[in-house]
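Re: the multi-chain job from yesterday

Posting the exact lines I submitted so nobody has to dig through the queue logs.
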Amino acid sequence: MPPSRVDTLSRLYADLGIMISEAHFSEELIHKLTLLLEEFKYKLAALTITSLENLENMKRLIEKYSDSIEYVLRLNIRVKERRQLLKLLRRRRLVTLVSVECSNREILRTAVRDRRVDLVYIPINKRIDFSIREAKAATGHDTLSLELRFWDLTKMRIDRIRRIYRWVLAAKKYKVPIILTSGAKSLNEIRAPRDMAPLLTLFDLTLEEALTCISKNPLRIVNINKEKLSKNYIMPGVKIVGKSEPYEISTKIPGIQTYKPRKLK
Amino acid sequence: MKFRQRYLVFRLISQENLSEDDFKLLINSLITKMRELYGVKGFIYGVPFLLKAHTEKKMGIIICNNKNVHMVRSALSTLKEVNGKEIIPYVVKVSGTRKKAINILQSYTPKDLITA
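And the result, structure tokens for all chains:
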């Protein structure tokens, strides 16, 4: 079997954009959703919330059904002013993922530069572009990625296709990960990952790259964020791996015990 | 370059009963959607058509070329309803032979997924 085929078969898929309104969430709905996601062979799904009011309830619901499908919470920020965005981002640690729906260019540029933002989504009807300038600003981040929603891509006109094509080119040039989500607003809009991904071939992505947009890229973001949110995380590259009793050094290590810091003049 | 046929075994998740006409309508809307998304390029390798429909299981087999499997898959997934009935279509398996595809269709036991 060629390696690419093996890779395709062993992929784990994630849908980071289930946009069902939190007001409709109930145990029954999550049960149905879990069955559907299991059938479509998803491993992870992100449920979107727009405010932090129902956070505790949602967390409780998720914990109950997180056996077969791993659920995470995603805060979708939709504001018009930069100040409001920064205010909401202060509460970043309460959820695993943060996405910003950019209604104007100012919000987009702020979101792209901020390290607390994971996903940037540009509504298809707004006249804003994810241009080279934004892509350049996003290169330094480990998690920031461009979100494309499946149901947006299906309602396309020629001018919109051209715009999205330019976004994809800019993201590819500066290696900003692209993430494909379903953007499902009801259960009927959820689709299988291997059926959704080929639509990205319209934008000059290969089938392999398109599948990465719905498998490796989203899982990578969630894993990084989970590590950051864990108690053992201190800073990038430093984490607590274990705790033990302090011990005395019996042998002399040259250079350590004799080290004296220089006095500053 | 060799052109081979692929058999897509698909399933429609729906609360309502589906007739054979619904499956035929589905293929028509699939072709319309393919033209909308991929243009004439989508039909270079041929037009997909329905081989078999199992109305009880709400499953069927679509024949298409191996070069445009991904186009058919994505166009199929964009369909939301057929004949006024809400559906969730998805491809269960892609097979290279007719015999195997029919075997999959007959042996597959669809899970009871209730849609809202």
